Amino acid sequence: MNQRVRVILLIVWIVTIFVLTGYPGLKAPRFTDFPIDKAYHFIAFVLLGIFEIRLVKNSMYFLIGCNVAILAELQQLLIPGRDFEYLDIVAGMCGLCVVFAAYKGRKMVRHDVSKT
């Protein structure tokens, strides 16, 4: 996949995150006492990380991803029926960290295999 397509996918996904988190009154279903919306945030930011990881350097990866997570929550302060939650930011950052760790781990394994 070429660089231009990756950039377009990243931008489309960032816009999608802001649309979904900015939709008034959109509530995630609850299963017993498990807050499923945290899982949705985690998955959304895993996808963001996947789109982002091969495009930018390590420091920019977290800067972009964390800013999207924070701004997506801050916009909810302005949207009726939506609530700002720190744990949503944490869930998003955890998703970014999982992708980063998996990507770096994969590169290390590939590097070790090529040495043998």
Quick structural overview:
The protein has 116 residues and is mainly α. It contains four helices and no strands.
Notes on the protein architecture:
By secondary structure, the chain is mainly α. The chain has one domain (about 5-115). It has helices at about 5-20, 35-50, 60-75, 85-115. Helix 1 (about 5-20) runs antiparallel to helix 2 and helix 3 (about 60-75) runs antiparallel to helix 4 (about 85-115).
The tally of helices reads 4
> What proportion of the residues is helical, as a percent range?
over 70%
Structurally, the number of domains stands at 1
Q: How many angstroms separate the termini?
A: 29 Å
What's the SSE blueprint?
Layout (H helix, E strand, L loop, with lengths): L2 H19 L14 H17 L5 H18 L10 H30 L1
Helix pairs in contact: 1-2, 1-3, 2-4, 3-4
What are the main properties of this structure?
116 residues; mainly alpha
